[in-house]
From TrEMBL:
<dbReference type="GO" id="GO:0016192">
    <property type="term" value="P:vesicle-mediated transport"/>
</dbReference>
<dbReference type="InterPro" id="IPR008564">
    <property type="entry name" value="TVP23-like"/>
</dbReference>
<keyword id="KW-0472">Membrane</keyword>
<feature type="region of interest" description="Disordered">
    <location>
        <begin position="1"/>
        <end position="21"/>
    </location>
</feature>
<dbReference type="Pfam" id="PF05832">
    <property type="entry name" value="DUF846"/>
</dbReference>
<dbReference type="GO" id="GO:0009306">
    <property type="term" value="P:protein secretion"/>
</dbReference>
<keyword id="KW-1133">Transmembrane helix</keyword>
<feature type="transmembrane region" description="Helical">
    <location>
        <begin position="126"/>
        <end position="147"/>
    </location>
</feature>
<dbReference type="GO" id="GO:0000139">
    <property type="term" value="C:Golgi membrane"/>
</dbReference>
<feature type="transmembrane region" description="Helical">
    <location>
        <begin position="59"/>
        <end position="79"/>
    </location>
</feature>
<comment type="similarity">
    <text>Belongs to the TVP23 family.</text>
</comment>
<keyword id="KW-0812">Transmembrane</keyword>
<protein>
    <recommendedName>
        <fullName>Golgi apparatus membrane protein TVP23 homolog</fullName>
    </recommendedName>
</protein>
<feature type="transmembrane region" description="Helical">
    <location>
        <begin position="153"/>
        <end position="172"/>
    </location>
</feature>
Amino acid sequence: MLSQDSNDDTEDVSLFDAEEETANRPKKSKVRHPVASFFHLFFRVSAIVVYLLCEFLSSSFIACMVTIILLLSCDFWAVKNVTGRLMVGLRWWNHIDEDGKSHWVFESREATPQDNKTVSEAESRIFWLGLIACPVLWVIFAFSALFSFRVKWLAVVIMGVVLQGANLYGYIRCKVGSRKNLTSMATSYLGKQFLRQVSVFWM
């Protein structure tokens, strides 16, 4: 489990009490949740396809914009609340305590022998591929809209970057730990690269 970070309001909480009955299922490389895997990709890919083809599908900018935003919103909800929990055992959300203080919670299923039996490598690859590739495409679209002076599309593209980037950031926090851990990993990596370059220089 992730430990609580003193620099923010991340909490250490139990995960998936209602899904303990799935622990005895055998580990398989095939897709165990085909519906969740389908919708994990369907909304985000559909939003990208509509954005690329909207000028050919409809002459109404408003209709295209509303369609894309609806698809992005459905994708955000599905990935945040359903597919991450089923496909990779991760979940994140925000709640307000009695004092009105906001808490961000990042959960990861404990790595146990029984839990490893429920992991699908195929689903994990599908989840992370879709989670990482699509925000990268929206960032490319943002630069393209900016440099081509398509100002009216810039707001739509920024919405795609924000919604899909938020899920990417949340699940990275769930996967590798709190912000403090991320900072430590980055510092350690840069330190190793620096030492490697120094070693090569003096050889």
